[in-house]
Amino acid sequence: MSEMSSTEQQPETEIDLAAAEALLGTDADRFKHDYLEVRGLRVEFDGFVAVRDVDLTVTQGDLRFLIGPNGAGKTTLIDAVTGLVRATGSVSFGRTALLGRSTHRIARAGVGRTFQTASVFEELTVLQNLDIAAGARRAPLTLLRRRPATPEAVEHALETVGLTALRDVPAGVLAHGQKQWLEIGMLLVQDAHLLLLDEPVAGMTQAEREETGQLLRRIGSQRVVVVVEHDMEFLRSFADSVTVMHQGRVLAEGTVNEVQNDPAVVEVYLGAPTQGDLA
Amino acid sequence: MTVLTTLLRPGRTRTLAAFGLAAVLLLLAPLVLSPFRLDLLAKFLCLAMVAVGIGLAWGRGGLLTLGQGVYFGLGAYLMAMHLKLADAGPGGVPDFMLLYGTGQVPGWWEPLRSPVSAILLILVVPAALAALLGWAVFTRRVRGAYFAILSQALAAAFAILLIGQQQTTGGTNGLNGFRAFFGYDLADPVNKQMLYLIAAAVLLLMVAIVRQLTVSRFGELLVAVRDQEDRVRFLGYDPAAVKVVAYVVAAVMAAVGGALFVPIAGIVSPADVGVVPSIGFLIGVAIGGRATLLGPVLGSIAVSWAQTSISEQFPSGWIYFQGALFILVIAFLPGGLASVAGKLRRRAPEGSPA
Questions:
Q1: Closest partner CB to A135 (pick from B213, B217, B238)
Q2: What is the superkingdom listed in this entry's lineage (chain A) (predicted)?
Q3: Quick check: B150 and B65 in contact, CB under 8 A?
Q4: Is residue B246 in some structural domain?
């Protein structure tokens, strides 16, 4: 899974949690209480119902993991929240209703996401990637000028995800794990308050997973974070709570322990076979 | 200190040097070329203006604009209409209308009588059409080959429309026989030379504009939209808006090229605006290197020059040569001839001045 060859030639990169402070704000902001609320969500593709009757509430400070077998509707749920697919029901973030808005307006309302395959702008440098992510609220005419200096938020994000030394490198040559980190950095400078991460540690080394988990936990204390993940060990280490989906519905919800001991969950997903996969 | 280091960055010095060299060469041309050849070069420069815009829209923005003949034609026809009205004098009727039409100037020609409003319309009409069309197409997420086919169909329709309106557009013959350009006699070689210099200056200005757009934050965003449109959307931008800007800039550049082409070539007809010339614009850009700054300009001029000289030798040979060249470049050199320099530089030993 992990891509050893490319990581070896590059300077070591490390997550810097202290730098995240400047981006996330201080603890005083913690009591703003953003939350994601999904009610009766239904997504249908040509008669096939991919997601049905989904209710979901995720609050700030609750690092939520979303799990389920392939085809359970996890990614479709994220697609619906971010406006990529049509859905009925209601989705709101804080006081903002999200359903029916176009994708870029949902993003401007503070919703950010990553994709299963790291999708960074490969021909642009790490710095340019972050600068674009930071710039959606810039006045159109200022775009016609060259970047005067590195914006402060971008500087902090570079430090947070440990890519300061690689700032002028095209994002396409980054190692897989570094690309994933760059994506998280982009969400941070984008100033997303709801972060939807689709398999953020897929293909990472054990050390990288550990660091990513710490960072997500740090972000989760001040943002609403939903992580779709298959890696059970990662989930046990970092999840505050878990929502299990199966065939488009929410099957169970609770702490890692509660969910693991839920007979219905064990039956469809978490049982012995999965443990065996993890070795 | 930062200013100094930015100025001395290899990218910028090289661009400035290339820009200066191009300016000197363009200024020297009138001294070495016969009036006939200079006139040809001036024509090529006008066609190169279209290429500069395509370089931005296609090379940086990934918009395969197969119908730039429409905007070139709009600029050209608006200018030609103004020149015809100016030749006819205040309240006069252009000669071809007396021959084929009612002998009355149609109402929609009248705004072009005044030189100021003619120049404004040459800039505004293509920009407005491109903005309207671009908005309609890009917000519906029409892209790739579908956009290319759509823009080409538009070029075909535009040419057919012009042919059908003989009384008001000159039909297949187009508009020709201009005597003066904003009061300057077009038969005088000095004025022809002036037109060449105007074309050269405008082309350099356009290259400078595209260079500024490319290095700006907009340029980075445009590349981001080209490569990962959805990702850009999830960052809170509307990719359609970014594309529309690039498309409008390309359209205006094509229109200005068309407007200057008219007094230099002395004629514009539907044959200059249809599908074939629209593809021709693109071929120069592809051969020169669509993603580079000067590639489209040099490629376009080279293709125009080759077309003229090959057609002089083998009147029907050009079309085959053009097709073969296009296939060769797309198959073996997708980055265009400009990428050859980059490939050679990479082979050169480390540390040698590039």
A1: B217
A2: Bacteria
A3: no
A4: yes
Q: How many CB pairs under 8 A join A and B?
A: 75
Concatenated DSSP letters for B178-202? --EETTEETTSHHHHHHHHHHHHHH
CB atoms within 10 A of CB B166: 15
Predicted model pTM: 0.89
Give how many domains chain B has, as a whole number.
Answer: 1
Determine, yes or no, domain membership for B93: yes
pLDDT one-digit tens code per residue, B264-297? 999 999 999 998 899 889 989 998 888 888 889 9
Given a contact cutoff of 8 angstroms between Cβ atoms, the answer to whether A167 and A158 are in contact is yes
Output the CA–CA distances (angstroms, integers) from residue A227 to A29, A168, A175, A217, in the order listed. Answer: 22, 29, 21, 11
pLDDT at B102 over 90: no
pLDDT in tens, B14-25: 778 888 888 899
Question: Please, which pLDDT band fits residue A32 given cuts at 50, 70 and 90?
Answer: low
| Closest approach of A67 to chain B, Cα-based (Å) | 23
**Residue B354 falls within a domain, yes or no?**
no
Interchain contact B36–A (C-beta under 8 A): no
pLDDT at res. A37: 94
Residue B71 in domain: yes
B10 touches chain A (CB under 8 A): no
Q: Which residues of B touch A135 (CB under 8 A)?
A: 217, 221
